[in-house]
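Note to self: keep these together.
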Amino acid sequence: MTTVAEAEKLVLSQIRDYGIQLLPFEQALGYVLAEDLKADRDLPPFNRVTMDGIALKYSAIKNGIDTFRIKATQAAGDEPVNIEQEDECIEIMTGAVLPASVDTVVRYEDVKIDQRQATLLSAEIKQGQNLHLKGVDKKQGDLVAKGGVVVSPVIISLAASIGKTHLLVKKMPRVMIISSGDELVDGDQTPSPYQIRKSNSYTVKAVLKKHNIDADILHIPDDPAITKEKIQHCLKNYDVLLLSGGISMGKFDYIPQALEDLGVEKLFHKVAQRPGKPFWFGRYGDEGALVFAFPGNPVATFMCLHRYFLTWLNTTLSLPSKKVTYAALGRDFTFKPELQYYLQVTLQSNEQAQLIAMPVEGNGSGDFANLAGTEAFLELPLERSEFKKGEVFICWDYTD
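Structure:
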């Protein structure tokens, strides 16, 4: 049986490049930036006022002047107004351009204005205060964001500030989510006493949506000919197939045979883990579609999706496969089978800034309702069966 480490290595050996696309910057959130962003002018582009108040020449204060005649009022976006006399000032607003004839801004709280005259109330005034100087953040041509990072709200703000209204981003793979089985009915139908409503496909689709993948959904009945026909179409029209169910040893599990008949190379089947032991992974040709065939139990599908597919996706996009998080076990726990166990946990931090993972035991990999009250899987090594409170293990947070 394949170990988790071996399975991950095989999955990550199948990295693909799906190219790039140009998107309006406001639609690029969550995509991976495929170009460097550079300042089209100095940032800030002028000496910018950071407080509402008056702008004056500091030498006037040094010469004992404490009352100034207000020559004009200048708002943000206005053409700058210069003073001509040392005892003059400009009433000025936050965001305005600092006129060349002045060099210091005194906030309203530190002056008294009466009859178009401003009198200083504070002696604690420093030359150049309350200013954001031109080019202090970035010079024209400087790098403001390096390619290869996820487009965040901050990146969108930077793009807007440099006039980059369209961004080159990495394309996401085309994904088809496939469920199978006559026991599944649509969510708006009333199942018979022997059926259940579909849920895995919608769970997977929702997770992928968070990663800017708008996947399609297909359901295949328990029919070997239809199974082969539908999968063949998907292999030719999608980059990734994510299957849920139909890959075990049951008489109506036609998917493994269909994949074999269609020339999909099996890279592994069955992983020494729980949940998700029957996980099947393969490829259609050297650079063709990849097939992630997860067990049909909801918790198994959910875990395998996060542990393997999202790890593969991030690596494909040249992102860290996962920001590794570690958490300390909140209480003793025992798991006997010689399998790597993914324990459902809630997360909390203590006074020592330590992340604590508290086990939440459910009723097996079919207990999808239990997922609603948990936040992560704690990865427990297969070499052991006894796990002690306070021991630290890798944590796969699925609330991201």
